[in-house]
Amino acid sequence: MTFTNLKQSMKSNDKPMATIKDVAKAAGVSTATVSRALFDSEKVTESTREKVAKAVADIGYSPNVAARHLRRRETNSIMVILPDISNSFFSDVISGVEKVARTAGYKVLLGDLSHDTNRAKDFFDLVPTNQSDGLILLTSDIEHALLKDRQIGSGFPVVMACEYVEDMSLPTVRIDNQSAAGKAIEYLISLGHQNIATVTGPMQNPICRDRQEGLLEQLKKNGLPFQYSNMREGDFSFASGYEHGRTLLEQQDRPTAIFCHNDEMAIGVIKAARDLDIIVPAELSVIGFDNIAFGEYCEPELTTVNQPREDIGKQAMKTLLNILGDKDASLLHTPRTDLIVRGSTGICPKR
What we know:
Helix content is 42%, strand content 14%. The chain has 13 helices and twelve strands.
């Protein structure tokens, strides 16, 4: 289903669909004037355009292309909303967005939530107030009622990248997290590891649940049990990787391998092992996720799942441009991932 068709299917079936005649009647103008206001606003006065805009909003004429034309006097700016600008994962994603945006003549504005979901409304309000033409969301940690109200009710362009929102059909660019995590666990099993622990990201995030499901699926496939004492929930930071890694490694039956939901936590685990005089990879294998630049410069170099972050950003911006240009936009793009094997993984030690 295309994005345009999806939005049309979202219209309420409980009452007749509003028409351009209804808008004209509510605004006190002709249907021709409504059409000009929607699609060629330079040919109508500002006061008329505002009357038509109010009528569209009042009667719920559409969350569709016409509403976008009416609402938007293009700013040639788009907003990228991210959960934490200090997380190095996002720099390459934003770089990809910016490269495509610049070529298309758009500026990129950044909205940093700093893990405060209450800030999202301020950034969302930039679109209907003509300060941004659309949004790219790099986080699913947004109040869903707000997202549904603004995206469906107002019809302005929103594209998700990296993460996704469950039970909501938004154009999304993301990897198959379950499959990618499964490949990492499959590799550890091939090295002889059976006692595999994990430091997850926040489990309210659907991509973290997908990654954990990939781990459990591979263990089950290979007839291996999973001990829930081997699972710790982190927050994607170096510090949480260190804290939870130390806890796991101080267990009496400590794991021989730890899979982390991102590279920063994996690097924290490596530091915890070093502080406990546990040698990586001779005594412990560690795998991260994302392939951030730091992974190549830690000691030992980090084995990790590579996300094509710049390509994700580029595709997200291309999808948004399609929506802004009233073209069909696929609901899901799934870039390929690769397991990059470096020095932090090795044959399971004999105990």
